[in-house]
Write a structure and sequence with these properties.
The complex is a heterotrimer of chains A (296), B (298) and C (371).
Chain A (H helix, E strand, L loop, with lengths): L1 H12 L14 H24 L16 H7 L2 H34 E2 L3 H13 L2 H15 L13 H23 L4 H9 L4 H30 L2 H6 L7 H11 L3 H25 L6 H7 L1
Chain B lengths: L2 E2 L4 H29 L2 E4 L3 E4 L4 H5 L5 H31 L3 H16 L2 H12 L4 H17 L15 H26 L2 H9 L4 H12 L1 H16 L3 H6 L7 H10 L4 H33 L1
Antiparallel strand pairs in B: 2-3
Helix pairs in contact in B: 1-13, 3-7, 3-10, 4-7, 5-7, 7-10, 8-9, 10-13, 12-13
Chain C lengths: L4 E12 L2 E12 L3 E5 L6 H9 L6 E6 L2 E2 L10 E4 L11 H11 L4 H14 L15 H13 L5 E5 L7 H18 L2 E6 L2 H7 L2 E6 L2 E6 L1 H6 L4 H6 L4 E10 L4 E5 L3 E5 L10 E6 L5 E4 L16 E11 L3 E8 L4 E7 L14 E5 L6 E3 L2
Classes of the chains: A mainly alpha (296), B mainly alpha (298), C alpha+beta (371).
């Protein structure tokens, strides 16, 4: 369906005029290329979603519409527990990441201090280190340095995973917030101080409101990163705690079932909603926020 | 511009303590221990003694590990190259798209990127497996042709699309393509459009402009796109694990088995840190290229 | 000077989405002209230039170069070259490589390329700068590189997009005269886009004034100034006192416009305007005379007594050395701009702030505008 809608939409932009030399989007080879890439990126996801409604266990031929796999997935206790764990972890690690990340960004933006370059570089390392290495680090850390007790009450029983997730999320938040701080007019803060605000009050009254959109965007980024993570969780988690990706992983290893399709579809919908939320709060810059970090 | 930390000591110390503590205690300490382990030896079932030995690194040179490193690098390089070839025209089209179409196209590129990696990989399994959609379509086409040709094609044999190296590369391209498109787009977007127009105005065609002006100027951005794609591809675990066959193991899978199955932590730690070193070398290389680039522009 | 038509815009319209940037413009430019497209920002002048260069495609109409329709010809195959507003000098190439780039694209051999590029650099007084990188040049020098790069291809037409806007005031004056002498030297048709009327008047042999996508007037600089065809042109080029009125008398050899602020304005020529309709009389400040206040108003020698004269008070004055600008308030509160040259060293002391004066102008001075 992408194939048919895309070119039609593009034609509407300017009906008759031939394309200008740099209007690459209006040249058919590129349009065709875009459509093919679009199909490549979307066909697997869309078929997965469609077939979660297919009334057939093994057969991939369409047998009729059903919601029974959603029903099944929603009554699968271990899946529900895993989903709940994932949400709890994502929520907690997001809150901590936003606070710590914002603090790091403000410190880097605001102060001159010995070791600033080192601190800045240190914050970038969690972003670039391969996931598997970080996962291994967490495995060793929670095995040898800080063995996590099994019998803690909720949500502390998920504490080790939350800690691991914060470690890779908060540098991303710091980058997003730091970018936003770049557009802050320092005279506003000076004006607040001139009018009698203390250092702390000026920060809370002027700086924090300015960076609010980036806090939300950074938070959404941290939330998605946490929900998305499999490798680090897989290494950090003990045998008793199962998150959604870890659960899906074990189900997938076993076989492809419509139940997994249904659960995946739910998560895709959640992601899409989150993306649109991020867009609403920070415009299209939110889209590239995570990537901007990698770019540095 | 910036304030010396001494001017607001208490606020500075409060603000830096939490991130610094977290970074040191929950990131550098774990990695540091792994690093120490890479110079250690197994003693008994659970104890590891730090002996300062290079044996683990030496062990990484034994068969089959160099081959696995080589293969991982090769797969990551191929993935990066394919992403570049597929992604560059897309980035170009997005850059010069009208404002409205631009944000929709960016969204279209980003949406899969924000979707859970495991789900995307799983979706590929459903497409590629023997009873998957590709083979189903192929089977149907095969049967139709066979009917027309009166059965001269013989029996249908499904394409082996899953559990092999092809599947791994296909999956890695599928997963990493947005990583490549975004930095390419952001470099191209920053480029002064009149430079391209000047080149066209002076008689260069589109291809000439691409190689004479766009590529030299976007060099740093292309490099960072390559790096951003290559590093995660090199360390990927999930894709080769789920899509690969028995001979598609990459470094990350070996590391995982050393830690979770073979229980040889020191060796796993050494392998992990070889991966980290490779990453840093890549970043350093890119930094050098970028500095050279900046020196030219400044 | 100007020869055969070289460029023709035929009913060119360009729309971007819902906005019309260029609206049904027809215009012919002749060989050897230094032609200027003049107008406020957003008037469509740059779009017109970019359509000529091939960067934008006209929505409607045709563009002819040497009689050939080039409307859909890509920019790299058009015999025109452009000097960009930002100069667009390739930062990764040396000055010489920049200048030789166009020749390389045309398949000119290396030796000839080098020779011609060095010649072009000499033409713009940058001989010996070939090995430098653009970042080692000043803004003015970079512009010369852009000029040399375009001229070396010997285009039929050279396009200049706001060539002086990025230079500082002193360099701008110098480049003005250099560009005109360069144009005379190479004999190539120049088309320059600018929003600066001084620039256009000083450099161009002919100007087209545009406003909101429409072509307002095409004329020589002096005709634009002395014979504007609309209130927009009169106001945009230089400064002007505009009086709205009705055309009361429109005879063969004279006309009278009844204005509210200046009373009846006498003209020494017929107008052929709409009888009793609304027209505007535009008088340039330097064409208004100041007189000491006497009991009888001064008589203008080419108009009957009592016409083209008003009593006023000096409200503001700005001494500018060569001349003094006055603002005279007349009955009804209207401020009239008057520019008076300081012909002697004591001239500026003739009038004082608050002084009662007469103002007058000749019957041949007002330009009559119908729109």
């Amino acid at each position: 369906m992408t194939a048919t809608t895309a070119p039609v939409k593009l034609k509407k932009i300017a009906p008759k005029t031939p394309p200008g030399p740099l209007e690459y989007l209006r040249r058919w080879p590129l349009q065709l290329w875009l459509v093919l890439v679009g199909l490549f990126l979307y066909i697997p996801l869309i078929t997965l979603m469609i077939f979660s409604f297919n009334d057939s266990k093994r057969n991939i031929v369409w047998q009729g519409f059903t919601l029974k796999y959603y029903d099944k997935a929603l009554h699968n206790d271990s899946l529900i527990t895993a989903f709940g764990n994932s949400m709890t972890i994502a929520l907690c690690s997001t809150i901590i990441s936003v606070i710590i990340g914002a603090m790091a960004a403000i410190v880097l933006w605001r102060f001159r201090f010995v070791g600033k370059t080192a601190f800045n570089a240190g914050l970038a390392i969690p972003i670039v280190v391969p996931e598997i290495c970080m996962g291994v680090g967490m495995l060793v850390f929670f095995a040898k340095v800080l063995p996590w007790p099994h019998d803690l009450p909720w949500p502390l029983d998920l504490g080790n995973i939350i800690i691991a997730h914060v470690s890779f999320s908060f540098p991303f938040v710091a980058v997003v917030v730091r970018a936003r701080l770049g557009s802050f007019n320092r005279e506003l803060e000076e004006a607040a101080k001139d009018l009698g605000a203390s250092e702390f009050r000026a920060l809370m009254d002027v700086v924090i409101p300015h960076i609010q959109p980036s806090l939300i965007a950074g938070g959404l980024l941290a939330f998605t990163l946490s929900l998305d993570d499999f490798v680090i969780t897989f290494f950090t988690a003990g045998p008793d705690t199962v998150t959604f990706p870890v659960k899906v992983y074990s189900m997938v290893r076993f076989s492809v079932t419509p139940e997994v399709n249904a659960a995946s579809t739910i998560l895709i919908v959640v992601t899409v909603l989150l993306t649109f939320l991020a867009l609403k709060f920070q415009g299209s810059s939110a889209l590239t926020a995570g990537h901007g970090a990698d770019d540095k | 511009m910036e304030q010396s930390w001494r001017q607001a000591k208490s606020i500075f110390l409060t603000m830096i303590s939490a991130p610094l503590f977290w970074l040191v205690f929950f990131f550098f300490l774990p990695l540091g221990i792994v690093w120490l382990y890479s110079f250690g030896e197994n003693r008994g079932l659970i104890d590891i003694a730090f002996t300062g030995t290079w044996a683990n690194y030496a062990h990484a040179l034994d068969d089959p590990y160099p081959g696995i490193f080589w293969k991982s690098a090769w797969i990551a390089a191929l993935t990066t190259f394919l992403c570049l070839v597929v992604g560059f025209p897309v980035a170009l089209a997005i850059t010069f798209a009208p404002e409205k179409a631009k944000s929709w196209l960016l969204l279209a590129v980003m949406l899969p990127f924000w979707t859970n990696l495991l789900i995307r990989t799983y979706a590929l399994i459903a497409v590629l497996r023997t009873e998957g959609y590709v083979n189903m379509t192929y089977h149907w086409l095969f049967d139709m042709t066979n009917k027309v040709l009166g059965g001269s094609l013989g029996d249908f044999t499904p394409l082996a699309l899953l559990h092999n190296n092809f599947a791994v590369v296909f999956g890695l391209v599928f997963v990493n393509l947005p990583f490549m498109i975004l930095p390419l787009y952001s470099t191209l977007d920053r480029m002064d459009r009149s430079l391209l127009e000047a080149s066209l105005d002076l008689g260069a065609g589109h291809i000439g402009t691409l190689f004479n002006v766009v590529v030299p100027l976007a060099g740093a951005g292309i490099m960072s796109g390559i790096l951003i794609t290559f590093i995660p591809a090199l360390g990927s675990y999930l894709t080769p694990d789920l899509l690969g066959g028995p001979d598609s193991q990459m470094i990350a899978n070996v590391i995982e088995s050393q830690f979770k199955r073979a229980n040889n932590w020191p060796f796993g730690a050494a392998l992990s840190f070889i991966l980290v070193y490779l990453t840093f070398i890549g970043i350093a290389l890119q930094g050098i290229i970028e500095r050279k680039d900046k020196g030219r522009a400044a | 000077m100007s020869g055969n038509p070289i460029i023709s815009f035929e009913n060119i319209t360009k729309r971007f989405g819902k906005t019309t940037a260029v609206d049904n413009v027809s215009l012919t430019i002749n060989e050897g002209e230094f032609f200027s497209l003049l107008g406020p920002s957003g008037c469509g002048k740059t779009t017109l230039l970019r359509m000529l260069a091939g960067f934008e495609m006209p929505t409607e109409g045709r563009i002819l170069i040497d009689g050939k329709d080039v409307s859909t010809v890509p920019p790299n195959q058009r015999p025109v070259n452009m000097v960009f507003q930002s100069y667009a000098v390739f930062p990764h190439m040396t000055v010489l490589d920049n200048v030789a780039y166009g020749l390389k694209m045309d398949g000119v051999g290396a030796a000839e390329r080098r020779e011609r590029a060095e010649e072009a650099l000499k033409l713009v007084q940058l001989a010996g700068y070939g090995v430098r990188k653009p970042d080692q040049l000043s803004g003015g020098q970079r512009q010369r590189v852009a000029l040399a790069r375009a001229l070396v291809k010997k285009p039929r037409v050279l396009l200049l997009d706001e060539p002086l806007s990025a230079l500082d005031a002193k360099l701008r004056d110098q480049m003005r005269s250099e560009l005109t002498s360069l144009q005379q030297k190479v004999g190539i048709t120049f088309i320059m886009v600018t929003h600066d009327q001084d620039e256009a008047l000083a450099m161009a042999t002919r100007c087209a004034v545009m406003n909101r996508g429409l072509l307002q007037q095409v004329a020589t600089p002096s005709d634009l100034y002395e014979f504007p065809n609309s209130r927009f042109v009169a106001d945009f080029i230089g400064s002007v006192n505009m009086f709205e009125g009705t055309l009361d008398v429109d005879a063969k050899d004279h006309a009278i416009i009844n204005t509210q602020e200046m009373g009846p304005v006498y003209l020494d020529h017929g107008v052929t305007g709409p009888e009793k309709g609304t027209v505007w009389a535009a008088v340039r400040p330097e064409k208004i005379e100041l007189h000491k206040r006497t009991d009888t108003p001064p008589k203008v020698d080419d108009a009957p007594e009592g016409y083209n004269v008003a009593a006023g008070v000096v409200k503001h004055m700005v001494y500018l050395g060569s001349e003094t600008n006055y603002e005279i308030e007349i009955a009804g509160g209207r401020l009239i701009k008057v520019v008076r040259p300081n012909l002697t060293r004591w001239d500026q002391e003739d009038f004082e702030l608050g002084e009662q004066v007469w103002i007058s102008f000749h019957a041949c001075s007002p330009a009559v505008l119908l729109s």
